[in-house]
Amino acid sequence: MKDSRGGALTVLGGLAFLLPALTSRLAVADEKPGEPMTIKKVVSAKLEMADGALTVTVVGEVPTGGYTKPTLTRVTYFRQPDDGIQDYLFQAVPPTGVSAQVISQVTASDKWPALPKWVKGVRIHGARDGMLVKMLGDK
Predict the structure, then answer these.
(1) pLDDT tens for residues 129-139?
(2) How many domains does the chain have?
């Protein structure tokens, strides 16, 4: 069925379909393709001690599917922190092409083979809702 505007409804229908995809890509337009970005929301963190080693496992939320290479990077200090909390950065590489428009989760971990005595807990940094503090011995 044609309308009197020469197919304008078809074009508008196509634009309405593309709009959600374009706006989600604009939300990460500040990020360079292939570069890791900070996870915006840290959902949970788990600390496990075994034989003097600490394993930190973190789960975060991302706005779409297709995120790759999630990493949990331990911050290096010139001087140990007075509060005994080790900071971590939580990042992943966002998708560069079309991706599922569904909130997804990514997981990363870090194993610290010889935990220093000053460490009382960890603080995982993300963006926005992205900070979570977990103390050793917390459930």
Answers:
(1) 668 888 887 65
(2) 2
